[in-house]
Amino acid sequence: MAEKHGIGKRSLNNFDCFHYVYTKVADVTLLTLDQKLRETDIKGVAVMIEDCSGTMGFSIALSNKKRDKNMQQVFYPGHAGEPCVGEYAIVLDRTDMIARADIVLVSRLSHMASFHSSGFGRDIVLNRILANDLQGVRLNWIRLFLLTEQSASASAPIPYFHATEITRIKLDTDDFIARGNPCTIRRRNFLSRLFTGISQEVSYWNGDVVGGCARFSTSLENLRLLDQTEIETFCTRIGLRTPAAKPSPASIKTGSLPAAHNTWSSSSYH
User: Fold this and answer.
1) DSSP string for residues in 14-52
2) What percent of the chain is modeled with pLDDT above 70?
3) What pLDDT does residue 227 have?
4) Is the distance from CB of 20 to CB of 37 less than 8 angstroms?
């Protein structure tokens, strides 16, 4: 860079070279008023502008690449089997000793469909994500969130979302057994089957319940509403929040999550 742009009082100095190297290696946006540094090949460099009141400020040319890098488009069947489109993101929460994978299913106004209203399609998308993106990851360390856009405002930093967490992802026990996963099956005696109608019990270690091991299902009966702070945090993490036009954006931190413990689970069915 020094050979191309020069070094000296009227060119780049040592600090400019240091800032240039750091920006390239860290792949971050550089705020600068230095005309020579803005003429380099750094992407997203801030330029000086003058607003309507005559005061000087900054305008950052940010691309959508970084904001939307976490979002993936997904297709799923609706109520009548019609094709629907949505978006999803998987973000890691490392605030606890063990990281968690947060699956966020997003329905925008332009999608004309919602993961809240299509349970069958929601389960298809969930199983696809668990089998392809989170295969082998324990269900203990996976959470599922639904975001449905209610309204949008050009002036607001984020759209207005109805956001919930599905607190229980249910394992298909029959499919778990059919796929040969480790479990213990105990048949009940005649009197127990006669009075309860339950023929056998299945016990398994929850550490064997991982993504891709069997089919999973969800229900809106197991919901937790997210407050506005949580919604804003998720929008920031998955890139749906419009960055504020400030030289130093404030960081957003998530709260601590309780650690799950190894347990044994059992199921009884006919």
Assistant:
1) HHHHHHHHHHHHHT-------HHHHTSS-TT--EEEE-T
2) 60
3) 92
4) yes
